[in-house]
From TrEMBL, chain A:
Listed PANTHER family: ABC TRANSPORTER, ATP-BINDING PROTEIN (PTHR43335:SF8)
Protein name as catalogued: ABC-type multidrug transport system, ATPase component
GO molecular function: ATP binding; ATP hydrolysis activity
PROSITE patterns (alphabetical): ABC_TRANSPORTER_1 (PS00211), ABC_TRANSPORTER_2 (PS50893)
Organismal lineage: Bacteria, Bacillati, Bacillota, Bacilli, Lactobacillales
Family under the similarity heading: Belongs to the ABC transporter superfamily.
UniProtKB/TrEMBL annotation, chain B:
Protein name as annotated: Uncharacterized protein
Lineage: Bacteria, Bacillati, Bacillota, Bacilli, Lactobacillales
Pfam families: ABC2_membrane_4 (PF12730)
Domain of life: Bacteria
Keywords, sorted A to Z: Membrane, Transmembrane, Transmembrane helix
Residue ranges of the TM segments: 16-43, 63-87, 112-136, 156-177, 184-208, 228-250
Amino acid sequence: MTKNILAVNNISKNFGKFKAIDNVSFSLQKGDIYGLIGSNGAGKTTIMRLITQLSPLKVGTISLFDKSINQQALRHVGSVIETPAAFDKLTVKQNLKLIAIQRGINNQDKVKQIIKFVGLTKKVNTKAKNLSLGQKQRLGLAIAILPEPDLLILDEPINGLDPSGIIEFRSLLLKLNQEKQITILISSHILTELYQVSTRFGFIYNGRLIKEITKEELDKVNRSGLLVTVDNVAKAAQIIDTEFQNKFTVIDDQRLLIHSLDIDSSELNKHLVMNNVSVISMTKQERSLEDYYTNLIGGQENA
Amino acid sequence: MLNQLRTDFYRLSHTWGIYITFACTILYAAMIVINNVVGGIMVTGDSMAKLNSNDIWTLKNGLNAATLSSSLLVYLFIGIFVITIGYEFSQKTYKNTLVSGITRSQFIISKYLVMLINIFLLTLIYFITSIVSGLICNRSVGTSWSNLLSQTINNSIVIAFFISIVFGIAILVLLLTSSNVAGSIFIVVFPVIISVLNNIANWTWLKYIDFFSAAMKISLKLVTNGQLWNYVIVSFVVLLATIITSTIVIKNKEL
């Protein structure tokens, strides 16, 4: 049975007459990386602030780990909301030691491990105020993951990172999700990055959750994947099914679409040829998350 | 909450501001005793004259002078307020603190306690410095050592407690205004306003919230037992109301 890590039910939030969040519901199961997508002011940060109780919740309910949200449940949550927060005058190490004391973590090695994990080893004795924006993001992430949370909430964590930082950050998130089984709720404007890490997506528009979709469904809708043209599609389908376990759609008697761009195409080619299936062509077919988002939002604006 | 107290003490111990406050406190106490001067915003000419009438101060005179001058301690200790809770809001680190598992009320109480303990320790250091300075000047005790030491402890407790009430109200001001500066200004202005109102208005109840005068009167045993309880009850009620209101405000605040 999948475990509900977070359940947001019919939450709404008004700032004066402005309706920032309008009856939003969604849930995260263990292991999800849920990407919240929306333009500036759509309500992504407000949702995250409501979950972490930085904004008082008046309408709707939020459950963490199948229990109504409270301060104790928040112990199992790590978050970086809006900007990473650290004491300017303390060094990277002191800031993390502070969090260790606050969370009752006695293992001193853990601070060192986390510093290494986020790639701040060379900045260990640098004051937080002297860190670059990217380094501050890493410190923010370190602060959030030090207590080994079950749920990580990251609001625009890629902002300020250079290209290599973005790549490292992506692998960090995947490592946290896969190795430490941390469920992640993440928002970003950089949709290509969000696409690469998320397993599910929620689209927010004017405070409403207008669409939820899994990555698999998105790829299917976008018809993204590897388009394979062969002489014997039935046999090819059988081989892919038994050898690769990837989902695919047979398009016609010569073409099939594998719903994943991660498949090793040379390995696939080798297997098909070895089984006497002639491969006529293999082409990557991509429509991006951005295309999907643009269509979705365009549809809303025209509605 | 214990972890939060430990966290704040760790942070304070790694901040220059607390050591500067410590040094200033020692200098201020030494200056009073060595130079035979009394200063402070609530000190009357009579009380100063009374002390100055002694040509050579004893250690007890020095302690009394330090007590009369203690109203200025509140300004020296503003750094404690800024470092303990002001930084949390100016640097938005409350976002980390408030998801660490403590409740809003625990957050407010722990911040108050950290300030109270720091104020008490620094006040104690202030009075001990006044005694040590007197000893360096080869002055006589002027009373028994046990009296002198118990007065030192008592004065430290009373003065620290009354200063802490103003700091507690400053937490509420900070939360209401979301401004570290407003909280600090409140600490600076509060004793002056009370003192001025006390001089121009005839409100007898004002003396109960004139926390600095109350601290000095109690320390110098200028109040009767009956009045003492009035001061104590009013102070505790104000403190409790401040903590409860601060908790309600932070619970309903967009952080």
